[in-house]
Amino acid sequence: MKLKKWFEISLQNLVLLGIVVAMDVVLSKISFGPATVQIGLGFIGSVMLGYFFSPVWSAIGGGVADLVTSAIFGQQGGFFIGFTLTAMLGPMIYSFFFYQKPIKIWRIVAAVLLVTVIVNVFLNTLWIHIMYGLDFRAALIQRAPKELIVPWIQMVVIYFVLEALSRVKIKK
Amino acid sequence: MSKIIIGRYIPGNSIIYKLDPRGKLLACILFIFVIFLANNWITYGIISAFALIAVAATKLKPKVFWAGVKPLVWLIFFTSILQLFFTSGGTVYWNWWIFTLSSYGITNAIYIFIRFTLIILISTVMTVTTMPLEIADAMEWLLTPLKLFKVPVDKIALVMSIALRFVPTLFDETLKIMNAQRSRGADFNDGGLIKRAKAISPLLVPLFISSLETAVDLSTAMESRGYRGSSGRSRYRVLSWSNVDWINLGFFIALTILLLIFRTH
Is B233 within a domain? Predict the structure, then answer.
């Protein structure tokens, strides 16, 4: 029953999805912080997709965001279907944890850890391994420092973002 | 910022510009799979020649392609160097702890370097010679077979064109909101972690509220203009396939066959 509901979407929400996807694309081009620890805001777009849309439409939104980014900016490192799949998976995981659910610290921690491990550490490394024939261990080592630091920063940012977004939703 | 908004498209009128975006996108996607076939010097030579012909056919300045490679130069170098020390086999020249410098390592590092550069060159050719709207149309066409699996391709296409249309608008909006908040003391680049995380909501909340309003307005406008779902509608913007596109695909098939013949089995 719930699954069937996940597939339905009204025109207004469909248009909103388009605009949130555009926000995702814009945010992923902005980064904050000093040059040494630049934090991209792309993950906020994924969180927004996950928070406002069902897992099905979050995933579609994530995929479309990836396609639109490639269409406008060109994908750094080439078009590869694997990265579109991981772009779909992130918002989908966030949606399982955040969509129509109260904001809880454990949800944020679990969602970010899952996304980091599955999407960033495992799958994206796998795609690089497949695409460039790079040694899997070497690709992991290259990513490790970033993926050990960034998730904790993301959790703090996501907490404030969700708090802020939940206020907007109530006002609507 | 306005440069980013337009995207990376650079107007021109060489033969590559006249190709159908569908053919170009297809070739661009398949190129990454075909490059897997290259595994010796001859095949890498063939595929490099193919990529360089494509680059030359655009008749654009080398500067354009350098701009595509530049942001990734360090990543390419770092990756190649890691590969250099992590591949063992062949003659060993130097060895320390887990690092080995071997003849296999050196060839492998050079292969990866070439692969990286070629993939970036080909996707730069794609994005520089095709307008974003055309690329999006081509993507929509590529998604069409998914209809067989009941994927709502029409809805996805609608989401894609709305997103594409609103990226520049939201870019402007974001800058405006950031400047407005800055003008009354907001600081997006200073303070500790928590402070910085908090600084994002004065940007995000107004942005989201205006997006919500746009979505309501736009959906009302669409419905009042007779939009009743994506199916059963005609198309105003149509892509057209011509003879040049067959030649394009022919080149690509020839490349694949050459690679299959010359690769080490």
Answer: no
- Quick: pLDDT tens for B121-134: 888 888 888 888 88
| Encoded amino acid at A39, one letter | I
Q: Which residues pair with B92 in a beta bridge?
A: B102
Structurally, chain B folds into a number of domains equal to 2
Pick from B204, B210, B224 the residue to mutate for testing the A interface (most A CBs within 10 Å): B204
- Rounded Cα distance, B118 and B112, in Å: 10
User: Which of B171, B161, B114 lies closest to B139 in space, CA to CA?
Assistant: B161
* Residues in Cβ contact with B100 at an 8 Å cutoff, skipping those fewer than 6 apart: B85, B87, B88, B92, B94
Task: Show the beta-strand stretches assigned E in chain B.
Answer: 92-96, 99-102
ipTM of the prediction: 0.88
Q: Please name the member of B29, B197, B222 whose beta carbon is closest to the beta carbon of A156.
A: B197
Copy the structure tokens of residue A72: 């406008």
| CB-based contact, A55 to chain B, within 8 Å | no
Enter the pTM of the model.
Answer: 0.86
- Domain enclosing residue B35, as ranges: 15-130+241-264
Please check whether residues B212 and B84 belong to one and the same domain.
Answer: no
CB pair distance less than 8 Å for B205 and A165: yes
